[in-house]
Amino acid sequence: MVLKLSTLFLRTLREDPVDAEVASHKLLVRAGYIRRAAPGIYTWLPLGLRVLGKVEAIIREEMNAIGAQEVHFPALLPREPYETTGRWTEYGEGLFRLQDRKGADYLLAPTHEEMFTLLVKDLYSSYKDLPAYLYQIQNKYRDEARPRAGLLRGREFIMKDSYSFNIDDEGLEEAYQAHRAAYLKIFARLGLEILPVFATAGAMGGSKSEEFLHPTPVGEDTFVRSAGGYAANVEAVTTIVPEAIDYTDAPAFEVKDTPDTPTIETLVECANEVAPRTGNPWTAADTLKNVVLAAKMPTGERRLVAIGLPGDRNVDLKRVEANISSHLETGGEVELEAATEDDLKKHPTLIKGYIGPALGTDDAVLGLEGSSKILYLVDPRVVAGTSWVTGANAPGQHVFGLVAERDFTTDGTIECVEVHAGDPAPDGSGPLETARGIEMGHIFQLGRKYAEALDLKVLDQNGKLKIVTMGSYGVGVTRAVAALAESNHDENGLVWPRNVAPADVHLVVTGKQVELFEAAQKIADELDAAGVEVIYDDRPKVSAGVKFSDAELIGVPTIVVIGRGLADGVVEVKDRATGTRTDIAVDEVVAELIALAKA
Amino acid sequence: MVLKLSTLFLRTLREDPVDAEVASHKLLVRAGYIRRAAPGIYTWLPLGLRVLGKVEAIIREEMNAIGAQEVHFPALLPREPYETTGRWTEYGEGLFRLQDRKGADYLLAPTHEEMFTLLVKDLYSSYKDLPAYLYQIQNKYRDEARPRAGLLRGREFIMKDSYSFNIDDEGLEEAYQAHRAAYLKIFARLGLEILPVFATAGAMGGSKSEEFLHPTPVGEDTFVRSAGGYAANVEAVTTIVPEAIDYTDAPAFEVKDTPDTPTIETLVECANEVAPRTGNPWTAADTLKNVVLAAKMPTGERRLVAIGLPGDRNVDLKRVEANISSHLETGGEVELEAATEDDLKKHPTLIKGYIGPALGTDDAVLGLEGSSKILYLVDPRVVAGTSWVTGANAPGQHVFGLVAERDFTTDGTIECVEVHAGDPAPDGSGPLETARGIEMGHIFQLGRKYAEALDLKVLDQNGKLKIVTMGSYGVGVTRAVAALAESNHDENGLVWPRNVAPADVHLVVTGKQVELFEAAQKIADELDAAGVEVIYDDRPKVSAGVKFSDAELIGVPTIVVIGRGLADGVVEVKDRATGTRTDIAVDEVVAELIALAKA
């Protein structure tokens, strides 16, 4: 079907939409691919729907190729299964919840682990039925606090989500690797640069997890990579833990007056005055900074957590959030924020600016200690034997030479500091550099969390019931369209890779003579008959200039201009990406364009 | 891709699901096409998704063929546009409503008139842009009071909805006829018997409207048809209005004692005693029955309405509901029920069992009269000059010879009586018969209702702003799958028409010899290479009996049995619909099956 611009439901815009921040959003709206219906909620126009369909087809082919089978779940789901796994609560405000006319609770599904688990439980009962890989391409809903960047972070969006079901861990690893390989193929076919990075599992639960990031400055995710090939989401970066230090001969700690030193900067200055070290002045790295955070638990409870870290580092809240679940003995995501004055007032032993580990010299313990009511977690660099300048839990006082393990205890370590460029990669592959990316896919080894909660068991080889182990795998489909637009555009508009372009060829007639339109129509029909997709700008009263800018804006790979040259038997073929123009004989152009399209 | 039953995500059931009432629901679940996720909400399994995809493809082709362009709207929509047209309220409990984290109101769209109107307003501005036909195939949501019959009446379901935009009424008529013709083609290609019937517009608003009904006893809609070709939804049937009668010489009415006659039956008996007519005894048709109803208005108000009708008829609440809007000066659907004792107590002049038009003989008006607080509507048969026996608004009294127009006034006529088989078709094409059907499609001439409410205007030929006129057109896509199953099954299972079957051929191996499986695999591969879709039952340890019943249950058009005959060089080809079995030489069977599939 030739798309004629005289009738195509399209209106290109010369101005960027006011709410658009990123190029993909601006251009997809301006070129008539999408329109905003509500914050984070978009309508697909004919051109956009074509691109979306091609992205979906590629994903579908690669999923089918690994033996995954397509199903389709509802978006509107009952509360009960999500209640059973705890996610009804854990998702917090990110979940769209509603009630039906009878007052029964429903949700708009953000992801479908529960339903797939129950479906497999309904259909299957034996290890012989496994492995099963199932997927769907379907609408997902998340009530994002800040929907942004058009399709990049929407509230209604399309995901391909798959789930694997295996009898044992080896099977899960195989399923995981099959999906990993399929994802790499999918993104390669889409022409989207992708870096798989280690990730944390977040609210999904489970163990092993990787994100497929598309590196771009407009990405929301910060990740790190080393020249040696290490790559991880910052949440997942691990610190090389220094060796413990023998503290047998370490001098005892001393409390000193350090008036007016509530910050690391003032403390370091003061320390070099009250306890100068020759040739080796105190720096921020010698201090132990203790930051008190408040965790908003899924239950609604507000719980304080103290984080101890070297004073030359700052806390990265997202990293703490990603790694704190196991310490709180709770599933799901925990939101953290700095403790308020009110929070601190409830713990009068904490003196703001002078907080430190409990010194334990008094019968009344002041400050932070392991297993106290305030969870006290430290950066992995705080190993046994390290010696610190830190708060003495008294106004205007710090303690010098406080030695980890000998002088204070903690509730464990946590990855909590901002990762800096230059930090070593955990696998020894060199210093890290930081970059930004868009999360295009995410794969998880869920393990038995969902199967256990929903009682998905099958009979094993010995006739015994065994809990199934699961993986879950997602690709952001609408987000892929945005990422493709983001990475394929220039100042004039979109520049689609041929695999996903809404058409192969964009025919432009310049001039008014009927012969031009007849020639163009003939070329269009011949291409269409050969299966080459054509946009034909047949608008009679539109200037050549407007037609050219529309063609550049829409971004089909090959633009063909039928104009003055036709009298000499040639048309102009322009490559949208390179700008190269070639005159081609009109009786050869169809064969040429077919060759280009099928290349 | 050959679907092998050893790995296909499928489990057939021998028992009907407990909640299933109709054959399509039972068989689609038993044969592994769908599963229930919540009341009226279904999951599509691989076989079901294939059928759904084929139905969608046929619809898409026919919509594209009339120049309709596909777009895709969100399902989650903001309240505002629906507020503007009044449908946020009018939909009542049938609408799923929810709030986002900021407390903004959203809905899950039951249909998209508002959004399409706004989109066209956003993109188009001139009559030159019109006509525009747009459509989508998309999830719809309705919070049905009684979801039933599986996919036949769901709460999340797929619809193809299109909308036409024209500058004038002639254009609208053309768009309407184009969609009407496309719908007839779609249902013909699906192999679904369809009868277009006149319908009322309901909550949609607008004027001309037809439903596409699939006649079946399990249908929820009652319709009527005449041998002469008239067909209408009962809500839309019109009564042939008798001519008015000259009442100049009619005798004056008389009030008579009719003790203990609260029903038509007792009244008729009594009338023949107290006022016998020779040779022409009173019958129920001589009485005017006045039924008081309570209308639950969209605003929440409860308003009484009285309906006057010949005593040999009963009120059809659905017909009254469908036709009462214009009398209530309100848009949208009104729910009606019989007035309660409490309702009647508020109007002490209404004496239950003896209610009649106001006789106007008192200074205090007793009973029903036009433009009183109780709206009084009568059946169209109650024309001027007709004379009635009816309640006298006093206990135990009726009035005889009360003449319409001379003795009482009303607020108008309404189609309100139950249509009976034998009633004349309004177009004079003979007596009506009643039947039941499933509404598969519905087309509406909306006119300017939505464009007016949402201010969709374009410049006309004279440069003046003109309101656009619209049509809206729907096909129930998931419902079509159910209707196909309903009309294509036998006692052994589904019997799909080839156009929508999940595959063309179902290969069954009976026996254990490796040669049989090799031969089957070869046939499967050759068919697959030729584009014939194959289900291959390669399960090694399943009995021939189970394989046969699964094949019958799944209902693919051609079943091929590779078994004992292979030694003699033949396989058995069975037609699922007719049961005909033919032995075909194994080296000819592929060509034969390709011919069948492409026929």
From TrEMBL, chains A, B:
- Write the record's keywords in alphabetical order, separated by commas: Aminoacyl-tRNA synthetase, ATP-binding, Cytoplasm, Ligase, Nucleotide-binding, Protein biosynthesis
What this protein catalyses is: tRNA(Pro) + L-proline + ATP = L-prolyl-tRNA(Pro) + AMP + diphosphate
CDD domains linked to this entry: ProRS_anticodon_short, ProRS_core_prok
Query: Where does it localize?
Result: Cytoplasm
GO MF, any single term: ATP binding
Superkingdom per UniProt: Bacteria
Q: What class of enzyme is it?
A: ligase
Keyword flag Repressor: no
Q: Which GO terms describe its biological process?
A: prolyl-tRNA aminoacylation
> GO cellular-component terms in the record?
cytosol
Provide the E.C. number(s) assigned to this enzyme: 6.1.1.15
Domain (Aminoacyl-transfer RNA synthetases class-II family profile): residue spans on this chain: 35-497
Q: Which Pfam families match?
A: HGTP_anticodon, tRNA-synt_2b, tRNA_edit
Principal subcellular localization: cytoplasm
Subunit composition and interactions: Homodimer.
Function description: Catalyzes the attachment of proline to tRNA(Pro) in a two-step reaction: proline is first activated by ATP to form Pro-AMP and then transferred to the acceptor end of tRNA(Pro). As ProRS can inadvertently accommodate and process non-cognate amino acids such as alanine and cysteine, to avoid such errors it has two additional distinct editing activities against alanine. One activity is designated as 'pretransfer' editing and involves the tRNA(Pro)-independent hydrolysis of activated Ala-AMP.
Which family is it part of?
A: Belongs to the class-II aminoacyl-tRNA synthetase family. ProS type 1 subfamily.
Entry domain remark: Consists of three domains: the N-terminal catalytic domain, the editing domain and the C-terminal anticodon-binding domain.
Stated name of the protein: Proline--tRNA ligase
